[in-house]
Specification:
single chain, 643 residues, alpha+beta
Length: 643
């Protein structure tokens, strides 16, 4: 079938309406003094992307409706928004699933309203988010010091499209499918890595690794000794060593001579900080070396699974080399690493740079030389435990690595298809076989979720659950059932980063905010017991023969954050905002979650989100059906007060 391709410019596809292509308002007309806590959201650079993401629908400032009308720089459904100043090539589209019906653009954006009889807005979005259009936009930079494009540049950007809207929509369908598969893989990887981190924290931060009897070490009164180097107690038999004392082969990267063009553009990955930021396992890089370039510095080769750490500029960005590579001088690499140290050191160094260094220096470091890097003090557990950790999570990281490789193949397919489809060089149907590589990802995701269950066999929260029950009796002078514990855990800040608490769901059996680990912990009956009130109701009570043990745990310095937050939650639950205690807790959790996700305390936005929050409990279809607008407003005001 012959496809008629139209080749024209952006201004030719604009809507015939007035002001279909506009720039943002003059800077002083939309400055900080006009920003409010709610109203019409303002689109800024942080809402746009160069990665083909349609829109980042959060992080807004607001102006009043009256101010927005005066500015008259609205962006509504199907409008495209471009960055005019700063990171050129960013583009976003206002689409169906966004939080607001209308937005205003800032002084650093340009907006396009499309003639939908000519071009599908989503087709235009994919065209203008393509890599070669991004490159073209950067080439047309008219700024002297700050990157800049203006309306003249925007209007003259080229666009090619099939004359048939039906063909355009088929192309969009293919590209949407590929992007969906890529996002599924990213979601899998986020959960997999969070799982590995959860086990690491449980074993090597809380020190509740399995003892010789299979019980949590510290919780079972395993012996702890003070370590002078680390200035804290560690399990008996563990030690502190410099990084070089554990892994001695540290390679600082180097850049071959840039004066010799033949050194670059080959098949050997050349790792920089940006490459590590993009993917946990680095298989492809923005820049590459030829064999000639790499051979000028033969001692700088790094191997598959080596740990790469940025040490100049932004310090502490960490990833794994996916294949034999070299890096620039900003990267120190732990090379030829003992496998049992690989994932342990990766987790340990992430914590070190996230907490220790940042706390001491106060900000991003500018430099850490090789000697300083080699001298990082490392808590070194026994070899047997490190091997056990490696064996337990090796498959997790292999899955992460495989998913990254799949995503790169999918992205390459998408980037290859994009110009071919849009220029009519490939017709709809020819790419069907290629798309089969993505077809099973949804099923793989579900399978991987099931396989993760085995990783949580040794994890429980016996002391945490006991503390909640004990403090509830002391502060509220009452007892609750299982649902109370789930709701409490879902609202304790320091647990929000754990994967099992990220997708809490309602279940018809009365468990409320549900987590499989908490369910298992409650059923352990270590410090709590069930008292049956009747055939349908049971409450959790504290087993007081363990009160000394739990009280000692609650007094430990490392547990004070948890205990103080439980106390704070219990004080909140005493407030008479809603008559039923469980409903009050549920509404608090719901509003907090909406405020966190939406990054706003605007009532309309929160209540709109609650209307889309499905329920399977008590006959309600969604949260907005269960809680009235007045109850929700009261809770929003209350949360604002306690914040």
């Amino acid at each position: 079938m012959i496809i008629n391709i139209i080749e024209t410019t952006l201004e030719d596809i604009a809507s015939p309406d007035k002001k279909s292509i506009i720039s943002g308002p003059f800077g002083s007309n939309i400055s900080k003094k006009y920003f409010k806590e709610d109203g019409i959201p303002v689109i800024r650079g942080n809402n746009l992307s160069t990665e083909g993401i349609k829109f980042k629908d959060s992080g807004y400032v607001f102006v009043t409706k009256e101010k927005a009308d005066k500015l008259n720089c609205y962006a509504v459904k199907d409008d495209l928004v471009f960055t005019a100043v700063g990171t050129l090539g960013q583009v976003g589209i206002i689409h169906d699933e966004m939080l607001y019906k209308e937005y205003v653009i800032s002084n650093k954006q340009l907006r396009l309203r499309i003639d939908k009889e000519k071009v599908s807005p989503l087709y235009a979005f994919y065209w203008f988010s393509s890599k070669w259009i991004q490159k073209l936009i950067n080439q047309r930079n008219v700024g002297s010091t700050v990157p800049l494009i203006n309306l003249t540049v925007l209007k003259k950007l080229p666009i090619h499209f099939p004359e048939s809207l039906k063909t355009q929509n088929k192309i969009v369908e293919i590209l949407e499918s590929l992007n969906t598969k890529i996002e599924v893989n990213k979601k899998i990887n986020a959960e997999l890595e969070a799982t590995a981190k959860l086990i690491y924290d449980y074993w090597f931060v809380q020190f509740d690794f399995p003892n010789k009897d299979g019980r949590p070490y510290k919780s079972s009164r395993g012996k702890m000794v003070y370590n002078e180097t680390l200035k804290r107690e560690i399990p008996e038999g563990w030690e502190a060593k410099d990084l070089k004392g554990i892994e001695s082969n540290i390679i600082t990267g180097k850049t071959p001579s840039t004066k010799i063009k033949e050194n670059f553009g080959g098949d050997i990955p050349f790792i920089t900080i940006d490459d590590i930021r993009q993917n946990r396992f680095i298989y492809t890089t923005e820049r590459t070396l030829t064999k000639q370039g790499a051979e000028t510095q033969q001692k700088k080769y790094i191997e598959e699974n080596d740990i790469c750490v940025s040490c100049i500029g932004t310090v502490g960005v960490i990833g794994f080399a996916g294949k034999k590579s070299q890096s620039n001088q900003q990267i120190n690499t732990i090379s030829n690493i003992n496998p049992i140290n690989r994932y342990y050191l990766y987790q340990y160094l992430n914590d070190y740079f996230n907490f220790n260094v940042a706390a001491k220096k106060g900000a991003v470091l500018s430099n850490m030389n090789k000697g300083e890097f080699e001298s990082i003090p490392i808590l070194n557990p026994n070899e047997e435990l490190k091997k056990l950790y490696f064996d337990k999570i090796d498959d997790v990281f292999k899955s992460i690595s495989n998913n990254i490789k799949q995503n790169q193949k999918l992205a390459s397919l998408r980037d290859w298809l994009l110009p071919m489809l849009m220029n009519g060089q490939v017709t709809i149907g020819e790419q069907k076989d290629e798309l089969n590589i993505a077809a099973e990802l949804g099923a793989v995701y579900e399978k991987d979720k099931v396989s993760l269950d085995s990783l949580f066999e040794t994890i429980n929260y016996d002391y945490e659950v006991a503390a909640i029950v004990l403090l509830t009796r002391q502060i509220l002078d009452r007892t609750y059932g299982r649902k109370f514990i789930h709701k409490m855990f879902s609202n304790i800040q320091f647990l929000e980063s754990l994967p099992v608490f990220k997708e809490l769901e309602f279940q018809e059996n009365g468990w409320g905010m549900y987590s499989s680990i908490i369910k298992k912990t409650i059923e352990n009956n270590k410090f709590i017991r069930f008292d049956e009130i009747n055939e349908k109701v049971s409450v959790l009570n504290f087993n007081y023969k363990h009160i000394k043990e739990v009280s000692n745990w609650m007094k430990d310095e490392e547990n004070q954050d948890f205990v103080s937050q439980v106390k704070q939650m219990l004080k909140i639950y005493q407030k008479p905002l809603i008559n039923k205690d469980m409903d009050r807790i549920e509404l608090l959790n719901t509003v907090l979650e909406c405020m966190n996700v939406l990054d706003t305390d605007n009532f309309d936005s929160i209540y709109s989100k609650m209307k889309k929050w499905p329920m399977r409990e008590d006959g309600y279809k969604n949260k907005a059906e269960k809680f009235t607008p007045q109850e929700t407003r009261l809770m929003i005001d209350f949360i604002k007060e306690i914040q």
